[in-house]
């Protein structure tokens, strides 16, 4: 029996450049990649990117589902729009995580 995984990333704030799309293509030759999306289904392989790094560098939203029940949804929002302290009561266990993404120089 195969394992089915679905990955989708969306760039909402700005479109990806041609260079950024080429960098994403190096992570997957089968993905559908546009200026605003990266989408791929894996039945036998696995995602070779780093979800957290891709969210910090390229994308604003991410969805991942898997046949064994994994469901993951991520949003990147400007730090000044959310008070991280107000999210702490909801960050119990793995169901919700709030993290501050740091952009590396050159991104």
What does this structure look like?
By secondary structure, this protein is an alpha+beta fold. It has one domain. Helix content is 20%, strand content 23%. It contains 3 helices and 5 strands; from the N terminus they run E-H-E-E-H-E-E-H. Strands 2-3-1-4-5 form a 5-stranded antiparallel β-sheet, with helices on one face. A hairpin with a 4-residue loop joins strand 4 and strand 5. The protein is flat and about 40 Å long. The termini are far apart. The mean pLDDT is 84.
Walk me through the topology.
Elements: E1 5-10, H1 18-27, E2 32-33, E3 37-42, H2 51-57, E4 61-66, E5 71-75, H3 84-87
End-to-end gap? 40 Å
SSE sequence, one letter per element: EHEEHEEH
Largest sheet: 5 strands, antiparallel
Q: Give the radius of gyration.
A: 15 Å
Report the uncertain regions: none
Average pLDDT level = 84
| Overall form | flat
Give helix % range.
10-25%
Strand % is: 15-25%
Number of helices: 3
Number of separate structural domains: 1
Number of strands: 5
| Helix/sheet category | alpha+beta
Strand order of the largest sheet: 2-3-1-4-5
Task: State the gist of this model.
The chain has 107 residues and is an alpha+beta fold. The chain contains 3 helices and 5 strands; from the N terminus they run βαββαββα. It has one domain (5-95).
């Amino acid at each position: 029996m195969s394992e089915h995984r679905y990955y989708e990333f969306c760039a909402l704030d700005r479109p990806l450049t041609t260079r950024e799309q080429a960098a994403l293509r190096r992570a997957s030759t089968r993905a559908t990649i546009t200026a605003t999306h990266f989408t791929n289904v894996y039945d036998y392989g696995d995602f070779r990117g780093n979800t957290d790094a891709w969210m910090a560098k390229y994308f604003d939203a991410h969805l991942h589902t898997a046949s064994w029940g994994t469901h993951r949804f991520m949003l990147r929002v400007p730090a000044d729009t959310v008070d991280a302290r107000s999210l702490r009561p909801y960050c119990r266990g793995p169901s919700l995580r709030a993290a501050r993404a740091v952009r590396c120089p050159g991104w």
